Amino acid sequence: MERPPVCLVTGNEHKVREAAMTLGRYGIRVERCPMRKLEVQSDDLVEIARTAAESLCGRGPDAPLLVEDAGLFVRRLRGFPGPYSDFAYRTIGVEGILRLLDGVEDRAAYFMAALCACWRGELACFSGVVEGTIALEPRGTGGFGFDPIFVPDGHTATFAELGEDVKSAISHRARALAAFAEWFLSKEL
Ligand code: IMP
């Protein structure tokens, strides 16, 4: 029996494409789920994703439902914007983060993604982290959000310069999705 496509609850087309590329490597198909997710406020990304997934469990099609929440954590800013990344992106934006790090030598940061899946009444959460640094200025046109200023460790280019093919293999989201893929593929149909 063929596995059903997983249903990703997001309005972000970039996330759908990245997930399709990552999960495609496992033979798993991805569709965008046109459902609204509950957004609770918390310092913990897993709690945010878990609460949203719980509220949608059993309401979608007969397919695994995926809810993801991600954020950028900057060490010198004590983890800001972290769970508030969406708000920070819409308010101070990429330029605002760069201004906060003006003249700062320690530019270490990481992206984290929390991913919760609900399928056949079971809820499972996975997370993924990618370490890197904040660039001195925005570079590249690919991706979304803070991609133009994030340089993953082991690279000199930003996520926006590396493009979706590379990003979907090494990113925080890719790592969380890979853990999900192992879980999903271990389940009997
Ligand atoms: P969301 O709530 O998971 O959509 O993520 C919150 C914010 O974090 C987004 O609005 C983006 O600005 C940022 N973000 C999350 N994931 C990524 C990513 O993969 N690249 C760049 N920015 C991201």
Give the tags.
single chain, 189 residues, alpha/beta, Maf protein, six-stranded mixed beta sheet, 6 helices, 6 strands, binds inosinic acid
Strand content: 15-25%
- The strand line-up of the biggest sheet is 2-1-3-4-5-6
Q: What ions, cofactors and ligands are bound?
A: inosinic acid
CATH fold-level label: Maf protein
Query: SSE order, as H and E?
Result: EHEHEHHEEEHH
Number of beta strands: 6
Distance between the termini: 7 Å
Number of helices: 6
How many structural domains? 1
Q: Calculate the mean pLDDT score and round it.
A: 95
Give the helix level as a range of percent.
Answer: 25-40%
Specify the overall morphology.
globular
| Contiguous uncertain segments of 5+ residues | none
Please compute the radius of gyration using only Cα atoms.
16 Å
Structural class: alpha/beta
* CATH domain class: Alpha Beta
Largest sheet: 6 strands, mixed
Architecture per CATH nomenclature, i.e. the level-2 architecture: Alpha-Beta Complex
